[in-house]
Design brief:
about 425 residues, 14-stranded antiparallel barrel, 19 strands, mainly beta, 3 helices, about 5% helix
Length: about 425
């Protein structure tokens, strides 16, 4: 009965996350005015505090949707549940003005369980992108004119995946099927003698999939290398766009113009991911990832200057002594670095993103479940100087709970 109640709680959290995710606003970056906004970190728990690695990670204690081939590593008696939320502080500098902002919201939720000793299933909800910004500028419509810009929303993926070990716990393959959905709301108000409001709202949905592979090569009885590869084909989004102009801030009356457009050819790119991980059981993990997205030639909202995106990440985890009673020696200490470029140009330039992360996995009393804390500092700088772009930096704290239970074990009492 206790396990059934835990399962019901997990399902309720998952359903609640799906029904409320469209209201999230996890950023206040002016760069999210373009394209689909800020692309989300797709890693969970441990991977997030290790620079965002995941293609080569293969852990029986963590859910890793970055590579669906990883699911089959879990014990055949185990049930996993993972949920996370984030808090972010951002600072902006355009060379003359400075500002700051605070945001935070739900990040992801997922569950995973085995079907047999070789097959496992996972399902969850995670963000694809975030849109959130508010800023103002002097308008060219006359003296004293002011234009204010704001945006909210983003895209999300609900996924179901499966993985199978096909060769002696060394070679595994897996796939995710994902339903992308979401809406993005861009607003602008121009104040002169009167105030005029415009809104561009886009609703989008699409089906897509990821396929992944992992090969594990043993070095010793406790050490091994895992090589991972993932391919995500491009998607074409089904969209409906509403363009409204009104004298009413809430667009309930005084409508001046209302237009609707559907299926304008927006899409997402092909994504290729590769990673390698060195693991020493109960002691050390060192991982490196590289991913490449073919955004150039892909139609995205708000700009015609999409460009290919490269991301590189490295990270590691260290456990002082997993078999001691001293609690701090059983904590999993993590750190990582990552670099990526923007997937669009603004004013003839894109930007580079540099990040460093620190974190820890705090074991619960059963030494199977964990509370994961990740601290990440990211600096966003224009790729070219003197192009009028904003320098942005933010500090993000992510907290997640990984529930690990011997779900299918029957205890006997003599």
């Amino acid at each position: 009965m206790l396990k059934i109640n835990k399962l019901l709680i997990a399902v309720c959290i998952f359903v609640g996350a799906v029904t409320t995710v469209s209201a999230q606003n996890s950023t206040n970056s002016p760069y999210t005015r373009f394209g689909y906004g800020q692309l989300a970190d797709r890693s969970f728990g441990a991977g997030r505090s290790m620079g965002g690695v995941g293609y080569g990670l293969r852990s029986s204690r963590q859910i890793n949707p970055m590579n669906p081939a990883s699911y089959s590593v879990m014990d055949s008696m185990t049930f996993l549940f993972d949920a996370g939320a984030s808090f972010q502080m951002s600072w902006f500098n355009d060379g003359t003005n400075r500002s700051s902002d605070i945001n935070g919201n739900f990040e992801y939720v997922a569950l995973q369980f085995p079907l047999s000793r070789r097959i496992a299933i996972s399902a969850g909800l995670m963000p694809y992108s975030h849109v959130g910004y508010t800023f103002s500028a002097i308008s060219s419509d006359g003296p004293g004119s002011l234009t204010q810009f704001s945006g909210t929303g983003g895209l999300n993926d609900v996924f179901v995946g499966a993985s199978i070990d096909i060769w002696k716990k060394r070679l595994a393959v897996g796939a995710n099927i994902a339903y992308m959905f979401g809406k993005v709301d861009h607003r602008r108000s121009i104040t002169t003698t009167n105030t005029m409001y415009t809104m561009n709202k886009t609703e989008a949905h699409s089906l897509g999939f990821d396929i992944g592979l992992q090969y594990t090569h043993p070095l010793t009885k406790t050490e091994r290398l895992t090589f991972g590869a993932v391919y995500s084909p491009a998607r074409e989004l089904k969209t409906t766009r509403y363009d409204l102009i009104s004298n009413d801030e809430y667009f309930l009356s005084s409508m001046i113009q209302a237009d609707t457009a559907t299926n304008e050819g927006f899409g997402t790119p092909d994504t290729y991911g590769f990673g390698v991980t060195f693991t020493k059981d109960y002691k050390l993990i060192v991982a490196a990832d590289v991913s490449y997205q073919t955004w150039q030639g892909t139609k995205i909202p708000g700009t015609d200057n999409a460009k290919d995106r490269l991301k590189v990440a490295v990270g590691g985890e260290y456990i002082p002594n997993n078999f001691t009673r001293l609690y701090m020696n059983r904590v999993r200490y993590r750190a990582g670095l990552h670099y990526s470029n923007s997937y669009f140009n603004v004013n003839g330039s894109g930007y580079d993103e540099l990040g460093v992360s620190l974190g820890a996995g705090f074991p619960m009393l059963d030494n199977r479940s964990f509370i994961n804390a990740s601290f990440e500092y990211v600096k966003i700088v224009p790729a070219k100087t003197n192009v009028g772009l904003i320098n942005e930096q933010y500090f993000r704290f992510t907290l997640s709970y990984t529930f690990n239970e011997f779900w299918f074990m029957k205890r006997k009492i003599d």
